[in-house]
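Good day; I would like, with your permission, to put a structural problem before you. What I wish to show you is a protein chain and, alongside it, a tokenised description of its three-dimensional fold. Please examine both parts with care and let me know of anything in them that strikes you as inconsistent. Thank you for your consideration; the sequence and its tokens are set out here:

***
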Amino acid sequence: MPIAPLNNQVVFKKLLSDEEILKAFIKDFLDIDITPQSIEVEKKFIPPIGGVDIEIDIFVDDPTHRLVIEIQRERYDYDFDRFWHYHIASQLELVKSHKDYKLERTVYSIIWFTRKVREKQYQQSLMTTNQVTTTEHGQSMILYPHQLFFLNPFYLNDRTPQGLKDWMTLVVESVNNPRTPNINLHRPIIQKAAKLIDDDGLTPQERMEIIDERDYNNMRHKEWEDGIQEGKQARNLEIARNLLAEGVELTLIAKTTGLSIDELESLT
């Protein structure tokens, strides 16, 4: 059964906004039974919390838990700060009155990275942020039960929690081997997940949304590459001007900077 790639937000949101699949994933990962009162896609807080109008991919409330689930394909320097903000904003939104600061739900933020990363320290399948309080005697206590998780299935290893393995394998196979994915079809819930994102079963609207997102990501990548090239060109021009001012021969400057003689003569 061919499956659609889960590094696409349209496909990922379709998968984890399904209540049965969401409940199974959370049970496997956090060993929590949830009874969703609402499952919202592209959730916004109105009014915004803090100075950024955030939009959360999948947002779930039940009587005692709040789930924030994000998919992140690109890697930015500010990712960890950004998702910490999402995590804190989702807690702050629960405070309805200055007379009662006690949060009625425990907030779990789960961030899925769906590509490999360059930085070795982040090449982990699971990174967990706990809000731990420590006394002067070195004693630790959990005053705040909320947790932030970063998942990267491309670094699945022997120490990855068992509950994550089927789901991480599903993500990796959907990206690397979508036509004949090697996933745990012995589990009915994984069978259902594969069927839900069956590439042949996508609606025309879903296909258009997938194409739109792919085109948008390709455009951003091209803009990024163009920006690098423009930066190189600007640097080479600056070097050329400095060398010209020192009286260096044009042929040597051309060899050093990669600029043509005509380009160098236009600078004189």
Residues 9-200 form one domain. Residues 42 and 57 are 5 Å apart (CA to CA).
